């Protein structure tokens, strides 16, 4: 037998959302991708970086991804020393655990939220604690002082889509002895974010992704905003060339084209409102969403039945086997036309 570390032997590994081989034949609403293409300026920047003969690819990229840090710093009102660019925000979540939680040390997150935190903790050999949610979307049994090394809070919550009030997040920052990571993968679709708390509390880190609001899931891009000491630690442990040249060009152009970004977010929010209303007409329970997906429960509370019906019609949504979530479905917001077809399908399924 190969001499694997025990926790790697035992772990199951993360299962990403299903990717059908004939993607174009499906309405794909299962991994919260953006239905629109990225900004034309992003495409132009990628092509310019590629150049006529691809000669730039011969050379290593900027190891520090400086242009992206400068663009993000300018956009969010931080010195670039407070920003790090990453190969998807997943890379940041991984490196935060590696930087702050050693073997047998504890990390925590809300249940339900992003299950990848648990996988990353398993790889590291860190222990996991979860806190459930009350009916008012507050944390059940959260101690006056939480002594774990890291606490991950997804805001807006995924897969449920609601947001925690900022005062609540600030209170958490005060109660966490370790780091509070606010995973803002979906915050661009909401009204508020926790960036101001990064300036106020040394233990707050905000992570963002380009996969949702910037229509760039295929480029693998994320960023974090935190104190320079935190950024320096993350810089020590990342792959030294973590972003390739095309991704760096795309990131900077995407951050700089705020007009395109705003229009894209506006369309998603508009479609989200329409889709939520239509679901309710069909008798679905829908949690008001501030993300680019909704969590919806059919009248018979049988998420799997509806998932199967949609699947037969080549509409892919997310059904979770977790008993807390199995009654409902997480449905990404696509184009208006895709959502109209989804409503028609749901009407047929009944
Ligand atoms: N956090 C949450 C809550 C997510 O849903 C996702 C996307 N699955 C990520 C982080 C990772 O995003 P990225 O594509 O930037 O790695």
UniProtKB/TrEMBL annotation:
Entry similarity comment: Belongs to the class-II pyridoxal-phosphate-dependent aminotransferase family. Histidinol-phosphate aminotransferase subfamily.
Name of the molecule in the record: Histidinol-phosphate aminotransferase
Record's subunit section: Homodimer.
Amino-acid biosynthesis in keyword set: yes
Catalytic activity: L-histidinol phosphate + 2-oxoglutarate = 3-(imidazol-4-yl)-2-oxopropyl phosphate + L-glutamate
Taxonomy, superkingdom: Bacteria
Keywords on record: Amino-acid biosynthesis, Aminotransferase, Histidine biosynthesis, Pyridoxal phosphate, Transferase
Organism: Trichloromonas acetexigens
Domain Aminotransferase class I/classII large: start-end pairs: 26-346
GO terms for biological process, alphabetical: L-histidine biosynthetic process
Biological pathway: Amino-acid biosynthesis; L-histidine biosynthesis; L-histidine from 5-phospho-alpha-D-ribose 1-diphosphate: step 7/9
Molecular function per GO: histidinol-phosphate transaminase activity; pyridoxal phosphate binding
Catalytic class of the enzyme: transferase
Modified residue annotations for N6-(pyridoxal phosphate)lysine: 212
Enzyme Commission number(s) from the entry: 2.6.1.9
Cofactor field: pyridoxal 5'-phosphate
PANTHER family: HISTIDINOL-PHOSPHATE AMINOTRANSFERASE, HISTIDINOL-PHOSPHATE AMINOTRANSFERASE-RELATED
């Amino acid at each position: 037998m190969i001499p694997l570390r025990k926790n790697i032997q035992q772990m199951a590994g993360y299962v990403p959302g299903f990717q059908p081989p004939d993607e174009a034949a499906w309405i794909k609403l299962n991994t919260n991708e953006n239905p629109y293409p990225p900004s034309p300026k992003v495409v132009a920047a990628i092509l310019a970086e590629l150049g006529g003969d691809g000669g730039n690819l011969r050379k290593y990229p900027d190891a520090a991804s400086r242009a992206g840090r400068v663009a993000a710093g300018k956009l969010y009102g931080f010195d670039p020393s407070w920003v790090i660019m990453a190969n998807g925000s997943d890379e940041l979540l991984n490196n935060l655990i590696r930087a702050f939680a050693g073997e047998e040390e504890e990390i925590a997150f809300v249940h339900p939220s992003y299950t990848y935190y648990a996988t990353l903790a398993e790889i590291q050999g860190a222990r996991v604690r979860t806190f459930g949610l009350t009916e008012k979307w507050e944390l059940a049994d959260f101690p006056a002082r939480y002594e774990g090394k890291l606490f991950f809070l997804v805001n807006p919550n995924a897969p449920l889509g609601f947001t925690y009030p900022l005062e609540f997040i600030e209170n958490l920052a005060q109660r966490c002895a370790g780091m509070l990571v606010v995973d803002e993968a979906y915050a661009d679709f909401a009204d508020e974010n926790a960036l101001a708390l990064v300036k106020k509390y040394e233990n707050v880190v905000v992570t963002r992704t380009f996969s949702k609001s910037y229509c760039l899931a295929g480029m693998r891009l994320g960023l974090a905003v935190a104190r320079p000491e935190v950024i320096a630690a993350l810089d020590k442990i990342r792959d030294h060339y973590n972003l390739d040249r095309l991704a760096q060009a795309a990131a900077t152009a995407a951050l700089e084209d705020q007009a395109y970004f705003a229009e894209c977010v506006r369309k998603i929010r508009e479609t989200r409102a329409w889709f939520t209303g239509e679901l309710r007409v069909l008798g679905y329970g829908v949690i008001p969403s501030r993300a680019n997906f909704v969590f919806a429960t059919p009248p018979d509370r049988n998420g799997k039945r509806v998932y199967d019906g949609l699947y037969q019609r080549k509409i892919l949504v997310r059904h979770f086997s977790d008993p807390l979530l199995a009654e409902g479905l997480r449905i990404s917001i696509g184009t208006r036309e895709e959502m109209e077809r989804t409503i028609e399908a749901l009407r047929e399924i009944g």
